[in-house]
Design goal:
Rossmann fold, 12 helices, eight-stranded mixed sheet, alpha/beta
């Protein structure tokens, strides 16, 4: 089992493929297993892909203390250093995109390019009401359904997949749900992940991100959940990051990259190939 100890915590990681390094950062409470189903098969044909489990998830350690997106970014940068990765492509989805923002802000020398998928900076304008802590609706739904059913419904529901797609493609929805069940995050660290996501705020720091950046989301990713409309929050990211590219994927919701992986992966690969890394460093296996 590929575990590495960093500052007294064990982190689980896997490498796939060959080429320039590409680090994938998962969203709220997800292990790295979903990447292997939908993204790794295509991306590993072009890149040396690193997937890993955040603290609190999968096979990594689960310390009982408050989490934050800057903390996850520090974990990511430390993991890269331990694995001898210099500048790399980084892609984060949802909360993973929030973590990726902090990697680019706090560790700019590590980041060659950035893909921010279905993500946001926190608030999108001054005075906006934005739920911090665990959102009220999340608390209610988790109490009414129980944690395991809540996670299953969240991963397979309309937030992730358009209802018509889910009806016609139950196998895709099931594959995503099952990938997240293999090493499901326990409730306590999951809630710490939710709080970290809701406390995230980078809107006034986005000018510090200077690497080539793609901001991308599903055109239907407009659920008014704890983090609000992801199309609007993605637009705020693109506006705040000078020179960034902004794309919406028609027909996709928050889980567009699982709903239509061939199309999404082709967009990711095209962007990364247009921004190659100079002098990419040899990577530890």
């Amino acid at each position: 089992m590929p575990l590495i100890k960093i500052k007294d915590l064990n982190f689980y990681y896997e490498f796939h493929g060959e080429g320039e390094p590409l680090v994938l950062i998962s969203g709220t409470g997800f292990s790295c297993e979903h990447w292997k189903v939908f993204q790794v098969p295509d991306l590993s044909k072009h890149f040396r892909v690193l997937i890993w489990d955040h603290r609190g998830t999968g096979r990594s350690d689960k310390p009982e203390l408050p989490y934050s997106t800057p903390m996850f970014a520090e974990d990511c940068a430390n993991l890269m250093k331990a694995l001898n990765i210099g500048k790399t492509h980084i892609m984060g989805h949802s909360m993973g995109g929030r973590v990726a923002q902090w990697v680019a802000i706090d560790h700019p020398g590590c980041v060659a390019t950035l893909i921010l998928s279905g993500s946001g900076p926190g608030t999108t304008y001054d005075g906006q009401f934005y739920e911090r802590g665990v959102p009220f609706d999340t608390v209610v739904e988790m109490i009414e359904k129980g944690y395991e059913q809540y996670r299953k419904d969240h991963d397979g529901g309309e937030f992730m997949f358009p209802p018509e797609f889910a009806r016609k493609n139950p196998d895709v929805v099931k594959r995503f749900q099952e990938a997240n069940l293999d090493y499901q995050t326990p409730m306590r660290p999951y809630l710490r992940h939710v709080i970290a996501r809701q406390e995230h705020e980078t809107r006034h720091l986005l000018h510090k991100i200077t690497c080539p950046t793609l901001v991308i989301c599903g055109a239907g990713d407009r659920s008014e959940g704890g983090t609000g409309d992801h199309v609007l929050s993605s637009e705020a990211l693109a506006k705040g990051i000078e020179g960034s590219e902004f794309l919406t994927v028609e027909g996709g919701n928050h889980g567009y990259l699982r709903q239509m992986p061939e199309k999404a992966n082709a967009l990711f690969i095209d962007f990364l190939k247009r921004h190659p890394i100079k002098n990419a460093r040899c990577i530890r296996s």
